[in-house]
Structure formats: structure tokens, C-alpha cells
Amino acid sequence: MAEVLSQQEIDALLSALNSGEIQAADVTETKEKVKVYDFKRAMRYSKEQLRSIMRIHENFTRLLTSYLSAQLRTLVQIEIDLVDQVTYNEFIASIPSKTILTVFDVQPMDGKMVMEINPQVAYGVIERLLGGHGDPTTRDGSLTEIETVLIQKVFARGFELYPEGWKNIESIELKMEVIESNPQFLQLASPNDTMIIIALKTTIGEITGRMTICLPHHIVEPVLPKLSTQQWLTSMTKKNIPQQDKLKQNLDHVHVPVIAELGQATLPVSELMQLQVGDVIGIDMDKIHIKLGKTSRFLGNPGIQKGRYAVQIEQIIQTEGDEQ
């Protein structure tokens, strides 16, 4: 906010200008009102939307960290290093010429995303899986067929956890399609298409490297309205149902057999064997016992409701543990 001058200060300033003590150029504040905008590199996402993307992937990195730690039997740390929007050409130029690129099909967006795994990280994972100490310094080349299968299995199962991070925003499904080692063979989008990159700093034992998730715009575009902070908090509130309400919801789906028992009678086997059609069996019936499962809970009288047999409840049978 600009500073407001008093009348005395204004008079002194005008007097100094008239006497030539100061020049008008000395007190003129120049501000740049024109900003350069590159239409080839359109920024499609606001800072708020990028923060929502970060929160989604923070949940995923926690799950992936636990999974890899269990698989590799060593300390694994994964944390988000960067979330930014770049063009597809810039993404391809930023990754090594020899790397591990895992392509996933994303539904229902009907698009593909890619996970770039730095060779240091990939070879460290393979070394640990094959019983080594995770030292990839002796490796300098592409993956063998066996190593490719190992990486596919590890990260295919690891990315089964990816939809969990999105569950508050959108229900998605992932399927691993292919692994590439040369970025030039990967054609996910046009060179100037906007991509969101999420760089993950990964430490496996003593090995540190990067994994980078790349999301094309056509995957994120359908859920953009849901990436606002207000929408995020609303979805989280809906998920955080009180425990009492959760129990009530579960109990509403429990099926309990209800039996209306007219009465009971005891007959010797000899009389039972001689029963004929039309015989009458006397029963001890005062009230009909209505049972929930095997427990009598109500007493009632028989009747007819809309042409069907019915029971009118007259009394509740209190049992131990019932609220008064």
C-alpha cells in the first residue's frame, strides 16, 4: 500500500521541486505494468491446485515407503522434492538419456502417466531384491530381461497403492503397460502440452536418487474442479464420519431373523405317532413370543393386516444390558 503524505510534506516537496533542489525523475516511481506471457508454455494450474496435487502424493509416498521397506528389508525414505508444471518437451529434456520409464494406463481418464526411476534407484532396488547390499556403482547399462521383470513386479504392486492417495478426489485404476529405457521412444503428449511433475527424493539404504511422476494435462483436467481447498476439506469431512455413525451404518445392514412363536406343547412319542388329520394339539398360549434370533424380545397378539397374518407388539421383554 502506498504511503499517504501529509499536507505539510506535500508543500515541502513542491517547494523543493520549484527551487530545483530535487528533480521530478528522482521522485517518480516506475512500475512494470506489462508482463511477458509465453503462449507456448501456458500455465494451466493455480498454486492451490498444485498444493492439492502435493497432498495427494504425500499420502501415496507414505504408502509406497512402507511397501518398499517391507519388500527390500531395509530403510527406505521417500519425500516430495518438487511439484511443478512444465511442458512435455522440458520433462523429456530434464531426465537422463538412459533411465527407467514405467508407463501406466489410468482409468477412467483414458490416458497414460509415467514414472521415471533414476538408474541409481532402480539398480539399488534390483541389488536388494537379488540379495546384494544395494550398491549400484558397478552398473552402467540397460536392464536385462530378468531385471525388467523384477522391476515390473515391484512397481506394479507398489502402484496398486496409488489410487488410495486419490480416493478423496476421484476413484481411479492403474495398470502397468510397458517399461522403456530411452525417453525419445516415449510419446505421451505433444512437445508443448502441459504436464505436472512430482519429483520424489528417494533414499534406499545408502543410495539416494530421484523418482519422478509425470501427469499429462488430459488426466488431471477432469478433476480440476475438485482440487480446490474447499472441495478437498469437504470430501475429507464426508470421509471422517464419527465412530458412532459408522457403527449405526454397519448395524443397519445386519440381517436378524424374526420369529413369531405361537406357543409350545409337549407330547409323548406314542401320541405323536398316532396323530391324525384333524386332531387338535393344545398349546400353552397367553401371548405370542416374538424372537430376534433365539432370544424372546417382545410379547404380542395375533391379527390380520391388509389380508396378511400379523402380530401386534404389546410388551417389550427387558433383558440384562438393556438401557432403561
TrEMBL record:
Gene3D superfamilies: CheC-like, SpoA-like. The keyword Cell membrane applies. It is found in: Bacterial flagellum basal body; Cell membrane. Belongs to the FliM family. Keywords: Bacterial flagellum, Cell membrane, Cell projection, Chemotaxis, Cilium, Flagellar rotation, Flagellum, Membrane. One of its GO terms (cellular component) is plasma membrane. It comes from Neobacillus thermocopriae. The lineage of its organism: Bacteria, Bacillati, Bacillota, Bacilli, Bacillales. One of its GO terms (molecular function) is cytoskeletal motor activity. It comes from the Bacteria. One of its GO terms (biological process) is bacterial-type flagellum-dependent swarming motility. This is Flagellar motor switch protein FliM. It is a peripheral membrane protein. It holds the Pfam family FliM. Residues 250-317 form the Flagellar motor switch protein FliN-like C-terminal domain.
